[in-house]
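Cross-posted from the bioinformatics board.
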Amino acid sequence: MRASEIAEDFPVVASDSNALEAARLLATNRLPGLVVTDPRGRPAAILPASQVVRLLVPRYVQDDPSLAGVLSESMADRVAEKLRGKTVAALLPDDRPELAVVEADDTIVEVAAAMARLRSPLVAVVDHDRIAGVITASRLLELALRER
Amino acid sequence: MRASEIAEDFPVVASDSNALEAARLLATNRLPGLVVTDPRGRPAAILPASQVVRLLVPRYVQDDPSLAGVLSESMADRVAEKLRGKTVAALLPDDRPELAVVEADDTIVEVAAAMARLRSPLVAVVDHDRIAGVITASRLLELALRER
């Protein structure tokens, strides 16, 4: 079984696309993250939903978490304002983890090895340098357990 | 809005429960991870699906990833054998990240701050020392964006 045969569609956003739209995609589809592609269409990074959640937290609470409990909650709904006009690239953490990428003809063991090595919940599958889908850890487990 | 009001049910497994059952839960529900509780019922860790995927990868491929491509794939279906008889606790990584835990009466800003600090895709909500549900990053975004 090859990576391209088990890859699934997954929401992908371009790094220069709108940050508010990306946040809506995460929220509507209840996703833990999105795959971000570079201008050539190649998967470049994961945008974790937890990174967007940072925008819900005012800077002075990030600096002193003990202040969070005494804050009014009205600031939570300012997130849309903070996202508007930003690109997805601006949301990505500087020290982001390496994105696991496999080739379309890689075997299931190669996929599992890449996922295990980077401790990633998903790998992006590329075919001729463009994203062809993703494989999640739970998808791999489903296949492995189904075969028994 | 308080944490207990927005918490949702989420599959939880006890640390002394069966590893094969936990893997099936991940696979069937297509989850990126499970919340693991200690013997007192308090959330103690996350079991990431990628950690279970490690069992699909033979030790000598973990040591030398270049061998993955030349392997037969039949070993992938030995995962059930490897899981049988193991506990969930035995699967947890030694250097696992801290589990984000909030109290039932914490505010949405406190929840967001805990999630952002640990860069966690979810936080466990406890009420009187027992798990009351989880809040995912995408759930928080959904609430924040809906209010606009």
